Structure formats: C-alpha cells, structure tokens
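User: My collaborator sent over this chain with a note saying "see what the structure looks like." That's all I know about it. Can you take a look?
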Amino acid sequence: MTDLYQQQRAMRAMRRAAMQRGVIAVLDIGTAKIGCLVLRFDGPERFRDSDGIGSMAGQSAFRVIGASTTRSRGVRFGEIDAMQETERAIRTAVQGAQKMANTRVDHVIATFAGAGPRSYGLAGSVELRHGSVTEDDIARVLAACEVPDFGEGREVLHAQPVNFAIDHRSGLSDPRGQIGNRLSVDMHVLTVDATVVRNLLHCIKRCDLELAGIASSAYAAGISALVEDEQELGAACIDMGGGATGISIFIKKHMIYADSVRLGGDHVTSDIAKGLRVPLATAERIKTFYGGVYATGMDDREQIEIGGDSGDWERDRRTVSRSELIGIMRPRVEEILEEVRDRLDAAGFDHLPSQQIVLTGGASQIPGLDGLAPKILGQQVRIGRPLRVQGLPQAATGAAFASAVGLCLFAAHPQDEWWDFEIPADSYPARSLRWAVKWFRDNW
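Assistant: Without extra context I'll predict from the sequence alone. Here is the result:
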C-alpha cells in the first residue's frame, strides 16, 4: 500500500464538501466516448452516524442537470494514450455539461476501464475489547487483514468489506452495536496499474478540475445495470466498451470480483475497416446501421452501399452483402465472449447460487448478441440498460451509458471502504502505509 490511501481519504473529503455545496460532476472516460453528467443534490448528505456499512451508506437524493458526450481521443484500451488529446476531449465534455446545467463545477468523480485490474480476497479477525462492536473495532479488524504482495507498480483502487462475522454468526452487513467476543471480516481488494491512475490524476488536474473520487468502470456498470435481486443472489455484469470489456461479479450487493479484457467494439470496427478496405468512420457507420452476428438467407441478397469520398467513382460505389459483413463481425464478437467466459471460469462464477449474466455497454447493442451470448457464456443472459436516474436526458439512457449512470449512484451513496475508517497507525501491516496515515493527519 502506498500513497493512494491518503489520496482516497482526501477525495472522500472533497466529495462530501462538493455535495454539501450541492453540485458535482461525474466523468466517464472511455475509449469510444467521454461523457460528463452534472448532478445537483436536493438535500444535504446524511452522514454515517445513521447509516450502515454497505452499498447504500450515506445516500442522498440527486438529479442530473447537465449532460454532454464527445468522441474520445487519446484513450486506448481504456487507458490514456495521448495526454493532450484526452485533455481536450475532457474539457469539451465538461464545458458542454456545464453549459447545459448553467453552473460551474470544480469537482469530478471519474471512472475508467483497463489498467489490468486484479481482485484479491482478504480476511481479518480481532478480539472485541468492550463486548459490543464499535467503529474502532471495525477499523482494527480491517487493519488486521493480511495484505498480500500486489507487486511493484500496483495501487489499490477499491478496498471494500463485503462480509462481517461475530463469533459464529456470518453474513452481517453492519455489525456495529452487536455483542460478541470475536469480530471477523472478508474484504475485497481491487488493484490496478499505478501508472494508469497517475496519468488520469494528472490529466484531470491539467483540466483545472479536482478529482473527488475514482472508480472502476466495471464496478460502476454493475451498480447501474444489475437489478437488486441480481446483486443479492449473484450475477456478473459484462460492460462491453469500445477498447476494453469490463467484468464484475456481485453477490449480497457487494462486488467480489472484477477483471478486464482488452478487446471491445472498436476492434470489431477495425476488422470491418480492414476486411472491406474502408476508413474507420465508414466502418463504424456500417456496423451501427447494418451490423449483426446471425446471417440468414435474406442477408445474402441484402446489399449495403459502402459509399466514400475518395474520388474513385467505381470504389466509392461498391456494395457488399450483409452476410459478408456478419462474417467479418461474428468471429471477433465470439473471441470477446470466449475471453470473458475464461475470466468467469477462473473466478469460480459457476459456483454462485444464481448465474445470471447481464451484458451492457455500447458494444452490447449489436443485433443478435442476445442469441449468441447464451451459447458461449451460459443460458441466463440478458441485455441490461442502466437504471433510470431523475433528470437524465433520453439520449443518455442507453446501454452505452451504464458506467456513467453507475458513477452517479456511486457518487450519491458509495459503499464504505477501508479509507472511510480511522485505522490506528500502529495497526498497519506496511511501514509505507503507516507513514501515509501520519502524513495525512499532519498535512490534511
């Protein structure tokens, strides 16, 4: 654990301050598009004194008052590839949302895909000092978790307690005030490539914005696309974006696993561009209007005008059959789904009581995907759309906006994480973490 710990604590403090002022923005930095939503909070945030530990802790009513999207530039595989291009795209999206909201925002909560996420399950246990569980006991048991060696250049993005147990009673969501002798916890830790996070922090700072929170795109998509029963009984959310496909598994309303596949809708577009020898913009248009993964006898006769403006009369008036287009798209879509299946198998998804899979994200809108996916992933597959959020424009209610909408819900009521508790400095397993807490207390 390094200095991301006190950065996360500082970002939580900024989020609370921004919510008390009433306005905060969420920023979805994707490979295909960058979206910005401005949220206005109708009432002050209810702090943790009256709320439990879990995904609904500290909830507050909000509505979307500004929305803007722009084509993403400088982002590849969900990671920043060209800093200046990404900065310009973020400024464009934020300015458009501010103009619609007719207000200025200084604090944003960002989400991103990629960065090679890895999940770890940690466990800790402590004896209770006073008979009943207090906030200090929760802090001590979180600090008692044995942290593995994540490897050099890795940072913790999420560190969420997902299950508490007192003596032999397990499955507790909020143990505070309960009486027992021994408190145990299971914690899910998600680590990412530290360089990707630092690049994101630097880029947002260059846009004259303060980062008030950061989340995994797969986590945000799961929050918005999975209904309550799916989150409770066990389900996987597959967020099919432009440059990366995020995977998250939820059970008991907590994320217990996340991963990413470095393939997405842009790779399908690239295959079309190479197969038909057309520019990427033309390939994207053809994919959107005529794409699919199932060919019928009708598709052999349906001709698609490729069009173009190269000046070559013959070349600009070429046509291809729709079945030929599907023949290019289907192998890549199957490859993405097979990679996802391998990740789910490695995570032990087949042992969950309910094995519902929800596909969301822009690339999930390819016609016929709902028929192909069950053959590769399993029987219970559906296409998910994000939950309706008050004030959200109609254009931003599709599956492509699952991460952005999930980020709104994450901003309004984030799940409690490790850094939300005052963990005693002498309890830290790592010297660098002890130094981080001392620095935070002395300087914040």
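A starting point for your reply to your collaborator: Residues 44-52, 55-59, 426-444 have pLDDT under 50 and may be disordered.
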